[in-house]
Amino acid sequence: METQLRDYPLTSTIVKLKTGRVQLTLIEEPDWFLEQLSREDTEGKLYLPYWTYIWESSIGLACHVETLGAQLRAAQTLEIGCGFGLAGIVACRMGARVVFTDVERDALHFAHHNAEQNDVVERADFVQMDWNTPCFNGKFRYILAADVIYEEHHWQPIVTLLQEYLTPNGIALFAEPNRDSAIGFFKLLDDNGFVYEKSTCPVKLDRKPSYVSIHTVQHINA
Predict the structure, then answer these.
(1) How far is CA 7 from CA 2, 35, 58, in A?
(2) Using CA atoms, how far apart are residues 180 and 219, in angstroms rounded to an integer?
(3) Residue 4: helix, strand or coil by DSSP?
(4) pTM for the whole thing?
(5) How many angstroms from the chain centroid is the CA of residue 149?
(6) CB-CB contact of 61 with 55 (8 Å)
(7) Angle at 102 (CA atoms; ends 22, 15), nearest 5 degrees
(8) What is the pLDDT at residue 140?
């Protein structure tokens, strides 16, 4: 685990939340790695390793998760595209049992390390997973996702994942930075029997204030 982290130049940050601080180990030069690790798949689609950044949406999702408090106690929770693991770590602190997933193995190494240094690793599992081919036997009371709907070809696989793995009366939380393109994803949710409520969370990253939208999603027939 640590060997994988040493493959990168490292830095650390403290995310201050109402319920306490979260210490994160991050990649120091994500712009350089974005260029170096970019690649095209066999169909010519460009892959960009966005996991190497911490995004405003992950902070906004973490802030919202901590407001759930006792609702998360013992709740089976899935985080998709976990990156550095911030939101899942906060859910663990609230008492959830969290499965952290990402398609990138190195992202999971960072999430695992960050869970360890925040003393929640005993409430966490880590699974390398592509949301196009999820691999679970059970369902989840909560599904967490920060900034995962930025490209249209991700939308249907994510909706299918919700249909298959969200419990009846379960809740999916999507955080996103108010991109116009996100409207299409939530229209797809409407078309597939989901309802959602939108709230706004103020976030500051690198001293820059912004607003993140939090969408609370449930299935209308659950």
Answers:
(1) 9, 16, 24
(2) 23
(3) helix
(4) 0.93
(5) 11
(6) no
(7) 15
(8) 98
